[in-house]
Amino acid sequence: MFRFDRAEKVVDRFDSVGASATPVAAGEGAVHLTCLSVEPGGTIGAHPAPVAQLFLVIAGEGWVAGADGLRVSVSAGDGVRWEPGEVHTSGSATGLTALAVEGPSLVLSAPGPREPGAVA
Q1: What values do phi and psi take at 13, rounded to 5?
Q2: Which residues of the chain, if any, have pLDDT below 50?
Q3: What is the reported pTM?
Q4: CATH code, residues 9-102
Q5: Rounded (10°) CA dihedral 82, 86, 87, 90
Q6: For the chain, which residues make up each domain, given as ranges?
């Protein structure tokens, strides 16, 4: 047993504020799993995804935005998929925790429609 929400590393790149990360796992082919914590009022600044990336909100709520800056609300259970090079940012007024899965060999499943209240 171990905790993955340890907020071990402050995220300060890309003008990020109130964000931290805990590396959780890595695999062959440079696949990484990271737990991200965004404090109330915090943001992870705009940056390009270095490789295919999933942002899986596991607690709280906030927003994500692409290069156009248009914010889309997200909450626990929502996932966002970014392609390599896609500029994106995220933040929260109340705080959120997300798992980031990324890697060049990551094959992402096609996202289904977002249906509030739907059971997987």
Answers
A1: -70, 155
A2: 118-120
A3: 0.78
A4: 2.60.120.10
A5: 0
A6: 9-102
